[in-house]
């Protein structure tokens, strides 16, 4: 019997989760339903923690092994400039697109005036927000500085082991880049044992990734059952204009802007690339974590798109940390939307400040669910928007599905960069495609 492809397994799990969650809702909040939800949440948590478990060793080994395979510092500089250049173009285009869409649709206004009903939703948000969301928001806010300068501080963590344990990928990335570049400054024979070690470690982590992904359908099913069951409809009805504005902007960036960049800059087929990335995109959508999806993204880019390990190992961990197209776009729309609801007219200069802030804060956002909410608070505080805390709590009501969608955009943007850079390096792509898991 032919094995069902990984992406079809995940799609089946998503559909089944929606059906099961809808069925459970019919029985109400009884004891056995709570037990089922608890088991489903456990399955989802175990799968997500399994992916997170391998992130640190995978990122460190892949970056260092990738840099060691480059032709010294010149090879790193060439590929680094190409990668950062593409990331800047794609992220800037995402933010500008978000700005255009939110100013065109104006979801925070009603009949040209601030929406009074939405303002009431913001005022009542603390009472309506779940305790879990409140605790998560408070913890994230306490851990972050109230301005974007904290990004630069996180680049050089005083304790690299602690940074790895806490999932601070930005600091881990900078350290790994410095380590890999330093290795190229020594004679090749002297560095051979260390090069072989990191390459072997990377191979082992890839194999563990394959083991974890065998459980992906079950873990995604568990996660989605709990998510669909808990999502409420009351606040969603009020926030629907904002919700669909974000979805429209994300869809335009993913299905129009990024394919155009693929075709014009990379000279590659967007359709072929979508086919190559389907498993990673579904995993990103399900987990809402670009960091947790990184192992799957790397396998899809290498096995399906045909990008070399050298290029994928450099571009993708870097992208999972600094290239957040969907997040930057979302931050821009959320801030302007709240300003519209609060009756604050933002001049062109003020909106440009939001654009710059979204670019900067998206770099430092952790690749975990709802991490961008803290970045939005930072931008609101810097822009002088009143009622920021209440607004953020209100947005949590519809954030889960938007988080899933923008994570998929983030991952797709990273993969686009990988194939564009690979093409510029003369690599032959999309040959001998296979299911990467």
Q: Could you name the ranges where pLDDT drops below 50 across 5 or more consecutive residues?
A: 139-147
Average pLDDT: 81
Instruction: Domain count, please report it.
Output: 1
Order of helices and strands: HHHHEEHHHHHHHHHHHHHHHHH
How many β strands by DSSP? 2
| Derived structural class | mainly alpha
Q: Which homologous superfamily in CATH is the superfamily?
A: Sodium:dicarboxylate symporter
Q: What global shape is seen?
A: globular
> How would you write the strand order of the largest sheet?
1-2
**For this structure, what is the CATH class?**
Mainly Alpha
Cα radius of gyration in angstroms? 22 Å
Largest sheet: 2 strands, antiparallel
Strand content: under 5%
How much helix, percentage-wise, in residues?
Answer: over 70%
Q: In whole angstroms, how far apart are the ends?
A: 17 Å
**Which architecture does the CATH hierarchy give at level 2?**
Orthogonal Bundle
Number of helices: 21
CATH topology-level name: Proton glutamate symport protein
What can be said about this structure in brief?
With 437 residues, the protein is mainly alpha-helical.
Descriptive overview:
By secondary structure, this protein is mainly alpha-helical. It has a single domain (6-424), classed as Proton glutamate symport protein, CATH 1.10.3860. 79% of the residues lie in helices and 1% in strands. It contains 21 helices and two strands. A two-stranded antiparallel ribbon has the order 1-2. Strand 1 and strand 2 form a beta hairpin. Helix 14 runs antiparallel to helix 21 (399-424). Residues 139-147 have low confidence and may be disordered.
């Amino acid at each position: 019997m032919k094995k069902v492809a990984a992406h079809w397994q995940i799609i089946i799990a998503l559909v089944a989760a929606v059906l099961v969650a809808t069925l459970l809702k019919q029985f109400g909040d009884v004891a056995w339903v709570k037990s089922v939800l608890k088991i489903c949440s456990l399955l989802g948590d175990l799968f997500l923690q399994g992916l997170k478990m391998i992130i640190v060793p995978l990122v460190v080994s892949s970056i260092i092994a990738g840099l060691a395979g480059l032709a010294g510092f010149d090879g790193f500089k060439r590929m680094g400039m190409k990668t950062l250049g593409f990331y800047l173009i794609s992220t800037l285009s995402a933010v500008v697109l978000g700005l255009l869409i939110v100013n065109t649709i104006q979801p925070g206004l009603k009949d040209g005036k601030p929406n009074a009903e939405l303002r009431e939703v913001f005022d009542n948000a603390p009472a309506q927000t779940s305790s879990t969301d409140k605790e998560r928001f408070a913890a994230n806010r306490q851990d972050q500085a109230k301005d974007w300068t904290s990004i630069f501080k996180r680049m050089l963590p005083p304790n690299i082991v602690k940074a790895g344990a806490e999932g601070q990928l930005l600091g881990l990335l900078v350290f790994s880049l410095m380590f890999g570049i330093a290795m190229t400054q020594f004679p090749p024979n002297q560095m051979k044992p260390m090069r072989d070690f990191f390459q072997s470690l990377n191979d082992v982590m890839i194999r563990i990734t394959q083991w974890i992904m065998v459980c992906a359908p079950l873990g995604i099913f568990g996660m989605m059952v709990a998510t669909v069951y808990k999502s409420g409809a009351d606040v969603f009805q009020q926030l629907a204009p904002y919700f669909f504005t974000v979805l429209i902007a994300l869809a335009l960036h993913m299905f129009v802007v990024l394919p155009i960049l693929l075709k014009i800059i990379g000279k590659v087929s967007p359709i072929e690339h979508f086919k190559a990335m389907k498993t990673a995109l579904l995993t990103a959508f399900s987990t809402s974590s670009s960091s947790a999806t990184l192992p799957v993204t790397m396998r899809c880019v290498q096995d399906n798109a045909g990008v070399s390990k050298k290029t994928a190992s450099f571009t993708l961990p870097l992208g999972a940390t600094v290239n957040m197209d969907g997040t930057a776009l979302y931050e821009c729309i959320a801030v302007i939307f709240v300003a519209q609801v609060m009756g604050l007219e933002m001049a062109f200069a003020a909106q440009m400040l939001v654009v710059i802030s979204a670019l900067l804060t998206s770099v430092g956002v952790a690749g975990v669910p709802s991490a961008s909410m803290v970045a939005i608070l930072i931008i609101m505080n810097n822009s002088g928007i009143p009622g920021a805390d209440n607004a953020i709590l209100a947005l949590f009501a519809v954030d889960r599905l938007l988080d899933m969608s923008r994570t998929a955009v983030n991952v797709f943007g990273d993969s686009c960069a990988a194939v564009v850079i690979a093409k510029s390096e003369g690599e032959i792509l999309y040959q001998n495609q296979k299911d990467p898991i």
